[in-house]
Amino acid sequence: MFDYHVHTEFSVDCKVPMADSCRAAIAAGITEIAFTDHVEHQPADLGYGYYRPDDYFRELEKVRAEFGDRLTILAGAEVDFHLETADEVAKFIDRYADRYDFIIGSVHYASGGEIIFPEHFDGRTLDEVFLPYFDQIQAAVETGWFNVIGHLDIPKRYLPRTHRTYNPVVYRERLQPIFKAMIEKGVGFEINTSGLRQAPKTSMPGPAIVRWYAEAGGTLITTGTDSHSAQTVGSGVAKTLDMLELCGITSVASFRGRKSTLVPIAELRPAASET
Ligand SMILES: [Zn+2]
Ligand SMILES: [Zn+2]
Q: How far is the CA of 27 from the centre of ligand 2 (A)?
């Protein structure tokens, strides 16, 4: 099984050394891990300027030397994207993309630099949050800079009580051009299992969106826990493989040097029983 979204001490909101997550991954039956630290582009973000690529790659070499015989360790990044900061993102991609196996593009901010947290919903309808958000996702896909889109429907994670009636079916039509652009550009999305551990109690995205993507002809999906602690590395991945199969997805993507291959889910299941 693969965990393609793990943060380390190179993210401002995480203190976990890579070695701890490697040990946890091996114990959880993970065979490939991608360390995807935040590369922030919003000046207001606490993590702006925090990421140090050279130190990150040095540490990656160390854990590869120690754990590489038991675990495939990939160079990854979770790159924050917004049209307002796209020039900065472009510079990062130009300079560093070739050094990575796998790059997630994630939208964390709305226009004007307001982070998509519960307060962002104050005085707004669901459409006023989701539609501009999906416009940013569409733009991120169309750049072709990213291998996958992170937590595709993340605003649902922050839905205040007043909006708990959220049903993704209202965005089914809006998602179609996003899927089309994804397929044309060779960009996929991840199943981010952190939603299973948090308020949505479902992955981001959940089964409905996966099914519509599969119906649109999409096949490029990765699995990631978005772990900020070693304890959650691998959590929910086995369950996600079951979900994907039920939704008509038969493979999960593996990346090397930013190129994907699809690995049949049947080959990924752990030999021993796993929760
Ligand atoms: Zn994120
Ligand atoms: Zn993340």
A: 21
- 274 inside domain: no
Sequence-ordered strand ranges (E) for 151-245: 188-192, 221-224
Nearest ligand to the CA of 232 is 2
pLDDT in tens, the chain (275 residues): 999 999 999 999 999 999 999 999 999 999 999 999 999 999 989 999 999 999 999 999 999 999 999 999 999 999 999 999 999 999 999 999 999 999 999 999 999 999 999 999 999 999 999 999 999 999 999 999 999 999 999 999 999 888 877 889 999 999 999 999 999 999 999 999 999 999 889 999 999 999 999 999 999 999 999 999 999 999 999 999 999 999 999 999 999 999 999 999 999 986 555 44
Is residue 256 a part of any domain in this protein?
yes
**Residues ≥6 apart with Cβ < 8 Å to 237:** 1, 2, 3, 28, 30, 193, 223, 225
Domain range holding 103?
Answer: 2-268
Report how many domains make up the chain.
1
33: domain CATH number is 3.20.20.140
Residue 275 lies in a domain: no
Question: Residue 248 falls within a domain, yes or no?
Answer: yes
Give CA–CA dist 159/169, Å, rounded.
16
Strand, helix or coil at 269? coil
Distance 42 CA to ligand 1 centre (A): 13
Q: Tell me the ligand closest to 11's alpha carbon.
A: 2
